[in-house]
Amino acid sequence: MTQTDSQQPIKTAAKILELYAAGKRNFTKAELGKANLQGVDIKGVDLSYADLNHANLSGANLRGSDLSFTDLSRANLQDTDLRGALLFSANLRQANLTGAKLDKADCDRNTHFPKDFDPVQAGVQIKEG
To answer: Name one Pfam family in it (predicted).
Structure first.
């Protein structure tokens, strides 16, 4: 278990950026609802089970990140790089995915996308099982 795991959940954008700069990548269960993470480069992070409801992640680099079971409902993901991200059972209902890069991102049938959004057309791979 890493040091970050044993501490309280991350609750500010400044804290996640500080820890990321120090080499940490595990931010499981972070509580970043309504956080402003616009344009940040935090590729490869583990934000599984996090609350990013209403967060502004527009233009952010989350390439290869684990967002499984994360609440991204109503998040601004416009122009966000999510290539290769894990989106298993993530909630993306009402998220803004305009211009988001989703090539080779993985999801399952429990991942919830916005109404009228076609994940396959966006390059998402739906895994069975």
So the answer is: Pentapeptide
DSSP assignment of 64-116 equals T-B-TT-B-TT-B-TT-B-TT-B-TT-B-TT-B-TT-B-TT-EE-TT-BPPTT
Domain 18-129 falls in which CATH fold? Pectate Lyase C-like (2.160.20)
Domain edges within the chain: 18-129
* φ, ψ of residue 13 in degrees (nearest 5): -65, -40
| Model pLDDT for residues 11-67, shown as the tens digit of each residue | 999 999 999 999 999 999 999 999 999 999 999 999 999 999 999 999 999 999 999
Phi, psi (degrees; rounded to nearest 5) at 101: -95, 115
